[in-house]
Write a structure and sequence with these properties.
By secondary structure, the chain is of the alpha+beta class. It has 1 helix and 4 strands. It starts with a helix and ends in an 18-residue tail after the last strand.
């Protein structure tokens, strides 16, 4: 019976030592892969924001109000106001949504 206990103890030592070394090897390999993966990356360049001119396609700084290539306004008027009730509406609207008054070309 003493022999059976020593065999079980030896087997347990063997299993735990192999399992420990396998787990240790896996964790070392994983940490090495994680550490070296960042070493080979190229530094990221900051993205420059630009406004593309709808007329000529020129690249402009977001602070520019006009294209420095062709002079066209980069930020066109997107809405108009009713001359009677001052409601703001898109440029394509011909009559005020609130009071029904016609929107002239001058108010656009």
């Amino acid at each position: 019976m003493n022999y059976k206990i020593s065999v079980v103890e030896e087997l347990a030592k063997f299993v735990f030592s192999k399992a420990f070394s396998a787990g240790l090897g896996f964790s070392i390999g994983l940490s090495t892969a994680l550490l070296t993966s960042n070493a080979f990356k190229l530094p990221e360049k900051p993205v420059k924001q630009v406004i593309i001119c709808p007329k000529c396609g020129g690249k402009n700084s977001p602070s520019n109000r006009f294209c420095w290539h062709c002079g066209r306004a980069l930020y066109l008027k997107q809405s108009t106001c009713c001359p009677k009730c001052s409601l703001s509406m898109p440029l394509s609207v011909k009559f005020c949504w609130r009071c029904g008054s016609p929107l002239s070309e001058k108010s656009k």
